[in-house]
Amino acid sequence: MSEKTILVWFRNDLRVHDNEILFEATRKADKVLPVYIFDPFYFKITELGLLKTGNLRAKFLLESVADLRNNLQKLGGDLIVKIGNPAEIIPQLAQQYEVSEVYHHREVAFEETNISEEVEAALWKIKLNLKHFIGHTLYHKEDLPFPIKDIPDSFSIFKKKVERDSQVRPCIETPEQIHTPKIIDAGNIPTLADLGLTEPVEDSRSGFHYEGGESTGLLHLEQYVASQPLIAAKGAKHSDHPSRLSAWISLGCLSMRWVYREVTHGSHNSNSPLVLELLWRDYFRFMFKKHGKQFYSAERFKGIADDLSSNQEELFDKWKTGNTGVPFVDASMRQLNATGYIANDNRQAVAVYLAHELKVDWRMGAAYFEEKLIDYSPASNLGNWAFVAGVEHDPKDTRYFLSPKQISELDSQTQYISTWLPEVFAEQV
Ligand SMILES: Cc1cc2nc3c(=O)[nH]c(=O)nc-3n(C[C@H](O)[C@H](O)[C@H](O)COP(=O)(O)OP(=O)(O)OC[C@H]3O[C@@H](n4cnc5c(N)ncnc54)[C@H](O)[C@@H]3O)c2cc1C
Q1: Closest ligand 1 atom number to CA of residue 401
Q2: Are residues 82 and 17 in the same domain?
Q3: 276 and 142, same structural domain?
Q4: Whose C-alpha lies nearest to ligand 1, atom 43?
Q5: Does ligand 1 lie within 6 Å of residue 385's CB atom?
Q6: Using CA positions, which residue lies closest to atom 41 of ligand 1?
Q7: For residue 189, is it within any domain?
Q8: Number of independent structural domains in the chain
Q9: Taking burial as the number of CB atoms within 10 A of a residue's CB, which of 57, 308, 334, 337 is the most buried?
Q10: Of 135, 160, 186, which closes a domain?
């Protein structure tokens, strides 16, 4: 009898731990063919003249793919790496390696689901099935106390019901061994130049070094968990010591369940503030699933669409470069440009300022974040932006978001501002 081979198509799940597609493929097939494709779609310039992926995130991605290959090799496998259109490459590889099925994790944002649909259609032509798995959320869709169409739009109701009626599933085992077919040409991991990007320069003010990959993600998580008792003893707020896990979570170098397990130490009653943050992530992902393309609609959010500034482009430029004249906003934008990361309060501040004070279409801000953020994730980005833009959406939830008054109070954070906007203080001397 001929051997069965399953192609595992990695996308935003760049890990071997808690990875259902990898584990199931090793269980169901004799051979597993792991594949990652750098799709030029994600490296193009958009209509707004912005990159879909800036060099800081691209670097993190390249490191993550290299680490995945390394981890697969340690298990006896390998990773095929290609550049091109997945709808052409996956069927080609499937035929070349006589694959009987293709596994991948289902995405929610429409650009990602469009690509999956194209791959699915191309595979159908050669009579192969693309099997979808759910693996990006903390709570499994099937374990929610409501169908997707009835998910409450209010985060507070969503949270209350999910915490009361749902449980986080245990993590999936890491395969002990992976058998790949004899791979003819595994392909090189591209360089930034191959992707049309320049090498980023690390900013000495950053105070945090990002290196992509499951291995660094697990290490960072371990260090974060170890630091928690001390932080709790000082009575510090979570927002003063955010975890900085987002870049690894967004690319799936860390699974949400794994993070949950490590921070709660297996207790379902943990009151770790990080769990609340993870729940926000799930909420936006499920909202995306529920509302789909409407996420992009400015009109859906009251009062924004018909009240935009006539000189949007000019204001947008000032905002992007950190030249609005509002110190906290400008310092935050400069930190974002230099490092690819700003904390949640800073994101809210710059987003509220763009949408409500400058009255620039929030989707332009979201597109800029897409280029710059090292942790960009479509549902989290668009969800948060839409929320900020339609801030009056649910009065209970707005408590989570900063008001313009709170933003002006942030200008008192002189140490932060002097780091990223030293000229403000130089002028005062
Ligand atoms: C306008 C705007 C755009 C944003 N765009 C993104 C994005 O593209 N990608 C992204 O991962 N987050 C986004 N966020 C959410 C949030 O700011 C970041 O997840 C967080 O700042 C990452 O830092 P951290 O890992 O230290 O977070 P922590 O506070 O330590 O939180 C732990 C994890 O919970 C999740 N999380 C926390 N807050 C949120 C939130 N509000 N929404 C969704 N998930 C959350 C993240 O995965 C994060 O790593 C955005 C927020 C705003 C206001």
Answers
A1: 53
A2: yes
A3: yes
A4: 281
A5: yes
A6: 280
A7: no
A8: 3
A9: 57
A10: 135
Going by CA atoms, what residue is nearest to atom 5 of ligand 1?
381
351 lines ligand 1 (CB under 6 A): yes
Q: Exposure string (b/e) for 90-99, b if CB count within 10 Å is 16 or more? A: bbebbeebeb
pLDDT tens-digit map of 253-291: 999 999 999 999 866 656 788 999 999 999 999 988 888
CATH number at residue 56: 3.40.50.620
Cα 349 to middle of ligand 1, angstroms: 14
Domain that holds residue 421: 297-428
Residue 164 lies inside a defined structural domain of this protein = yes
Residue nearest to ligand 1 atom 23, measured at CA: 244
Which helix (H) or strand (E) segment holds residue 124: the answer is: helix 110-125
Matching residue, tokens 């090292």: 374
Question: Which amino acid appears at position 86 of this protein?
Answer: P
* DSSP H/E element including 175: none
**151 in any annotated domain:** yes
Least confident window among 59-63, 124-128, 279-283, 292-296: 292-296
> 51 and 24 in contact (C-beta within 8 Å)?
no
Domain containing residue 220: CATH number: 1.25.40.80
Say if residue 275 is in the same domain as residue 326: no
Lowest mean pLDDT among 23-37, 60-74, 144-158: 144-158
With a 6 Å cutoff on the Cβ, whether 286 touches ligand 1 is no
Ligand 1 atom with minimal separation from the 385 CA: 1
Element housing 156 (H / E): helix 155-165
pTM above 0.90, yes or no: yes
Residue where a domain stops, chosen among 82, 113, 135? 135
Instruction: Report yes or no on 196 lying in a domain.
Output: no
Provide the token pair at 113: 């689901």
**Ligand 1 touching residue 346 (CB < 6 A):** no
